[in-house]
Amino acid sequence: MKNQKKAIVLGITATMLMPVCFNGGTAEAAAADTNVAAMQAEINDLTARLTDLENSLAAAKEKQEAAKSEKKAKKEAPTIKWSGSTKSGYMYDEDKTGKIKAEANILARTVVDKTYDVGIGLKFKATSSEPKDGYSSEKNKVKLTDSYVGRSFGPVYVRAGVQKVSLGEGLWLSKSSVNQFTANYKMTPRDALYLGYGRDSQDYLANDTNKDFAPPARTRLLKFAQYQHDFSKDAYAGLYVGAQQPERYFGIYGSTPIVGKFGITAEYVRNTNKDKPAQVYNMTKNGPAKGSKIKYGYDYFGAHKDTQGYVISLNYGKAKKKGTWDIIGQYLNVDQNLFMDDGYSSWKDYIDAAGFKGFGLIVDYAVSDHSKLSLLRYWAHTNPDGANVNKDGDSLEKSPHYSTYLKFTTKF
């Protein structure tokens, strides 16, 4: 820029001085001096303008570089994506007691250093029960649902930390807040392998229903492996094996369209551990007696055989977009002591260690693209085995197990 400016100035000076070189005489010389002075002033003014232009261009270039750097920094900065859901409803069960239930889940996800994805999630839950045994009650809980870091290595995605794990249709396992190391291996576009290893539960961060005599949390070793093959977009089948200390599980599942909007989904799971342990010895009304040991186990035990369970669902339609609906009929048959802890099943509101056998009917209507109104009704009873007895030698009697649940859910 400086050389260009110098060349321009020299060129203008030479042009202005040419008439002076070819004119003689005093008058002509005086006029020439006047012209030279005027031209010199113009040259000085032009030089100043060129200097200002050079400074302006330098400032503009510096500003442009700063803008590029800022844009690059913003682009590389982690972007947090928020998602979540809410659920509120009213449930009425065989105890002739109603419960108003509300739940909110929130999850924040981001990618760090273009390599690792990180997720942090919380669940807030509140349940208000109508009067039972002379008084009403309320439960409020807060749980850490997600706190994980994940990374892809080609077709393998690895995740470590608190996360949701789900197998099959969720009859045995479909739960958030589980401490696991998991790996998803996309073997082919239609075949996938899912592996997990860790401890089975993350306790509530805040729980106003904890009992004084019970430990706040007892975790067990949880491990599993699942293989699934997708025949098409809506048809798949798979199998899994797993252990939830000391229980061992094997399961198969699948789903397929039948005709039109009809489809069928099913899952079968078997617990191959025959030695069902007792939960605690020397139990008193105030908790375990002094010196007794709390064990993983059941209140009723002694059958010494495999336990099993299955669910079959016949569905019509799909409530996804606004104005769409579906209806699902289910049959569940679950043995007593299939699960030591029912909190890991998708049917945890209905299935427990007492077993479950009966029918369910679900009707869903999408009131918007992200909201759904659902009515769930179950007619069933517990499914005890007479060979199982408690510490007093008594077996569990069969009892009704039914409920009606109207709920409204929203995802965002």
The counted number of beta strands is: 19
Multimerization status: single chain
Shape summary: elongated
Radius of gyration over C-alpha positions, nearest whole angstrom: 37 Å
Succession of helices and strands: HHEEEEEEEEEEEEEEEEEEE
- Helical content stands at 10-25%
Proportion of beta-strand residues? over 45%
Unreliable stretches covering 5 or more consecutive residues: 16-24, 210-214
Strand ordering within the main sheet = 1-2-3-4-5-6-7-9-10-11-12-15-16-17-18-19
Largest β sheet strand count, sense and barrel closure = 16 strands, antiparallel, barrel
Helix count from the secondary structure assignment: 2
Averaging pLDDT over every residue, what do you get? 85
Distance between the termini: 57 Å
Give the class from helix and strand content and strand pairing: alpha+beta
Structural overview:
The structure is a single chain. With 412 residues, this protein is of the alpha+beta class. Helix content is 17%, strand content 50%. The protein is built from two helices and 19 strands. The strands form two sheets. It has a 16-stranded antiparallel barrel. Strands 13-14 form a two-stranded antiparallel ribbon. α1 packs antiparallel against α2 (26-76). The two termini are 57 Å apart.
Give the topology:
Elements: H1 2-21, H2 26-76, E1 81-93, E2 98-112, E3 116-132, E4 135-153, E5 156-166, E6 174-188, E7 191-199, E8 204-207, E9 221-230, E10 236-244, E11 247-259, E12 262-271, E13 283-284, E14 287-288, E15 307-317, E16 325-334, E17 356-366, E18 371-381, E19 400-411
Antiparallel strand pairs: 1-2, 1-19, 2-3, 3-4, 4-5, 4-8, 5-6, 6-7, 7-9, 9-10, 10-11, 11-12, 12-15, 13-14, 15-16, 16-17, 17-18, 18-19
Helix pairs in contact: 1-2
